[in-house]
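pasting for ref. prot 1 ->
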Amino acid sequence: MSLANTLAAPLAGSLAAGSQVDGGYMTNARMFAMAAALVGLAGAAIGGLALARAARRVGNSGKNGAIVALVSGLIAVVGGVVNLAVADGGPGTGNGVVGGALAIGLGLIAIVLGAVARARSRKTGGRGAHHSMSSAS
């Protein structure tokens, strides 16, 4: 028996039995959940920046950032829901359940921040540098 087979046998046995997977082992479901959570985190960060920009009323009033936050939040929520829908075990089974739940939470935060930033940019009229230059002529 080779060294690779010796090291892989306990892992294959635990996967076949449906028991828990070591936290350091990266399964495809965990990677998908992590990607969805990172998209949600990026959307939440962009939504926060857009909200701050809309409050300052500079530039494009955060309209573009709000749209990016809304879209990335929606992608994260859908990815998290799909991941949880296909998971056949709980946390620690390698199905990315924790990452999927995190993706849903971060995606919802991104959606809320993006919606508030979009509403504030509409309230201020969405007047950025481009609009003020065209009205000056």
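and prot 2 ->
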Amino acid sequence: MRIVAFVHQKGGTGKTTLAIGTAIALAETGARVLLVDADVQGTASEWGSRWGQRWNVVCRSQMQPIIHEQTARFERMFDWMIVDGPPNVSEMTASIFKAADGVLIPIRPSLPDIWALENLAALHERLTAEGNAGTVFVVWNQVVDPPTEGMVAQVSAMPWRVSPRLIPWDAAWMQLMEGAPVPDNSGKYLRALATGILS
């Protein structure tokens, strides 16, 4: 089972939407997908209760910071575990970093989104030193106007890879919560992100 998580200290960056979209995109290939909701807001769980069966995605809520201790129990049942993390840096975030083979951090072209990366970087650095962290990949999300050169420079200074492709803002993403499919051409990209972060 491969484990990919979506995390960010800041809310509103699109973690949940991309986690759901990635789960759908992977399930469309016939993969057995578990979507783990580790955010107390419970949006992914609510989506799962309404639409998970339609898209062959199993959704579970996990509010205790023990995801890294629970992965073995799902190993034989699923091909992928997609984790939707909380909008903070906490014990849960650390547990997710420990569990995940790869972590995707969505950011908007917004300085507050970029500033919030520093705490995640410190946590990741500590866990890496302990041998408890996977690969991290940053992806520009909900893009209306492209990031400025200054924004790009700040993100590039982080110790992580950055996706060269921007995910544009599209009203179709909001329709995921209504049971709609992933917006055109994005499913292939999300599958490539999930697979690429593990290579």
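DSSP finds eight helices and seven strands in the chain.
The radius of gyration is 15 Å.
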